[in-house]
Amino acid sequence: MRAAFDAELWIWEASAEGSWHFVSVPGDLADDIREQFGHRAAGFGSIRVEVTIGSSTWRTSVFPDKQRATYVLPVKKAVRAKEGLEAGSTAAVELEVLTP
């Protein structure tokens, strides 16, 4: 499964230094991911993905967030720096779910 979407970066509230930045997966896409791949979820309900933002591509996982009723995608510091992103920025995200 591949998808593209735009999402705003936000900081996880429990992050002491504000170091954990995420984007939320749109609800309809999150529903599709949960339906098709939820039974294969790993620890903490995570689903492995490959992500591209700008010229940066990396592998990570999306994690279910009950408070937001969606999956959240961590955006690491190196990507934020390279792509000029910070909390409140909108990122064009390309996401591919990796199947085992």
Characterize the structure shown.
The protein is α+β, with helices and mostly antiparallel strands. The chain has a single domain (2-97), classed as AF2212/PG0164-like (Elongation Factor Tu (Ef-tu), domain 3). It contains two helices and seven strands. The chain has helices at 27-37, 77-83; strands at residues 2-8, 10-11, 21-24, 47-53, 56-65, 70-74, 90-97. Strand 4 (47-53) and strand 5 form a beta hairpin. The radius of gyration is 13 Å and the shape is globular. The protein starts with a strand and ends with a strand.
Major sheet size, sense and barrel closure? 7 strands, antiparallel
Question: How many separate domains make up the residues?
Answer: 1
Average pLDDT for all residues: 93
Uncertain spans: none
Which CATH class?
Mainly Beta
Within the largest sheet, what's the order of strands? 1-7-4-5-6-3-2
Percent of residues in helices? 10-25%
> What is the CATH topology assignment?
Elongation Factor Tu (Ef-tu), domain 3
Structural class: alpha+beta
Question: Total number of β-strand segments?
Answer: 7
What is the distance, rounded to the nearest whole angstrom, between the alpha carbons of the first and last residues?
13 Å
| The CATH H-level homologous superfamily | AF2212/PG0164-like
Using the CA coordinates, give the radius of gyration. Answer: 13 Å
- CATH architectural category: Beta Barrel
Q: Which percent band covers the strand fraction?
A: 35-45%
Shape: globular
Number of helices: 2
Spell out the helices and strands N to C. EEEHEEEHE
